Structure prediction request, 105 residues.
Amino acid sequence: MAKRLSRDEKNQKAIVDLINKMFEIAGHQVTYEDIEDRVDDWYAQWTMTEEQYDEWKLWGKKYLMKNVGMYAKMAERQMAMVGLMWGLTFTREIYDNGSTTKNPS
Prediction:
């Protein structure tokens, strides 16, 4: 029979799974094990788009609700905190005129 995880063990496993999924959604061949002992700003060395970030936040909310037992609002707050602490830098979209904002049409 499998050992039941404590709350701290569930939370640690959740962090590992969330970071691994973030790298997967962003399309990077990196895992939590690659960055766990780093003390530099590793989260600024890889990027993701805002759409990928939104996809990751939605996935993480569902994950936290199912595996950690959080309510929806608490899971959203937790994903916001994880995004602030360990979220990757956003890429800027460059448009035809060289600016980073869309032209009003």
In short: The longest strand covers residues 47-48. Strands lie at 47-48, 89-90.
